[in-house]
Each structure stands twice: as structure tokens, then as C-alpha cells.
Specification:
The chain has 186 residues and is mostly helical. It has ten helices and no strands. Helix 3 crosses helix 5 and helix 8 runs antiparallel to helix 10.
């Protein structure tokens, strides 16, 4: 009888001290709301609302899988860095899935504002531009990580990627391609 009472009391203590092993609905909702601060990142700015919700779900699920105890996760000193890392990893994963996601990285209206593409292109012309750019990127960069590193490194205009943008834009009337010598140092 003493053993039974001891086992029951130990089980009760264990159950009362164990932390919740999955996030509840409110915690998931809060994480999705917190992710909205990342909406202005390159690639994410051009997602429509449905695409954004799917992206936020992917990030939230990845975080929940890696950190099943929400309270512990939120109290981590580097929680913002961790979330940023998972956001970037999710973007890279989505880029690997489809090289034609260039439209999210380099939105048409941004390319027009920068003078790379002319105003008023047809849907077919825009598609042709992004197909050309994706093909050049796929042929030049060894991995999506290398490509994404180029984007994160700084001024795209002074990189090989900027040259690709101008070369693909040269097929369209009214676009002037200027050559820039790129000197890369290792």
C-alpha cells in the first residue's frame, strides 16, 4: 500500500511539473502576429495574403517543432535571432522549390522604379523576363545559398546578378543596358 501511494504521489508530482509539450492555439496565433514584422523583407513583400499565411504557417510549425515548449522558447535570450534564422531558412527552402520565385525577390514594380524594366510590359513579357533571369541564375550560381548570399551581401547592381537583370531586360524595347566591370575579391 505504501508503494502504491508513493507511486501515485510521484506520478502526480511528475505530471504537475511537466511543461506543455505543444503550443496552444493562442500561442500559434501570437507567433503568426509576431511574424508580420518580417513582411517587409525581400521576397516576402510581394506575397499576397494567402501566400503570406502559408509562409507564416511554415515558419510557426518549424519553430514549434524545434521548440515545443512555448514558454521556454519565448524566454530565450536570442529568440529574435532564432525567429529570423527560421524565416531566412524558410525563404531559402521555398526558393529551392521553384527558381521562378524571382518575381518575389525582384518585384516588377521595383524593377520599373529602378529603371531596369520599362513600364507597361505585358504579362507574357514579364514572364519571359523572369524566365530569362531564373535561367541565368541557375546556370551561374552553384546553390540557392550562394545566390541568396549574393542578395544579402548588399548592392545587387554591382554584382553578377545585376548584370543578369540588365541582360534579360535588354530584350525589351526602351531599356538601355550599361556594362559595369565587376571586380570580386576573395
Amino acid at each position: 500500500m505504501k508503494k502504491l501511494l508513493l507511486i501515485i504521489s510521484l506520478a502526480a508530482i511528475f505530471c504537475s511539473c511537466s511543461k506543455q509539450r505543444e503550443w496552444n492555439r493562442e500561442q500559434r496565433h501570437q507567433m503568426r502576429q509576431d511574424l508580420r514584422t518580417y513582411r517587409d523583407m525581400v521576397y516576402l513583400t510581394d506575397l499576397n495574403d494567402v501566400e503570406w499565411e502559408l509562409f507564416a504557417d511554415d515558419v510557426a510549425v518549424a519553430l514549434e517543432n524545434d521548440f515545443p515548449v512555448y514558454a521556454t522558447f519565448i524566454e530565450m535570450p536570442s529568440v529574435e535571432d532564432t525567429v529570423t534564422m527560421v524565416v531566412v531558412e524558410t525563404v531559402v527552402t521555398q526558393l529551392e522549390a521553384d527558381a521562378h520565385n524571382m518575381r518575389h525577390l525582384f518585384p516588377y514594380r521595383q524593377l520599373v522604379a529602378e529603371g531596369i524594366l520599362p513600364e507597361g510590359m505585358s504579362h507574357q513579357q514579364i514572364k519571359s523576363y523572369y524566365t530569362c533571369l531564373a535561367k541565368k541564375v541557375d546556370n551561374y550560381y552553384n546553390s540557392v545559398e550562394q545566390f541568396f548570399g549574393t542578395i544579402l551581401a548588399g548592392n545587387i547592381d554591382s554584382t553578377q546578378l545585376g548584370t543578369f537583370q540588365r541582360q534579360c531586360a535588354a530584350d525589351f524595347e526602351g531599356v538601355v543596358v550599361t556594362e559595369i566591370d565587376v571586380i570580386e575579391t576573395n
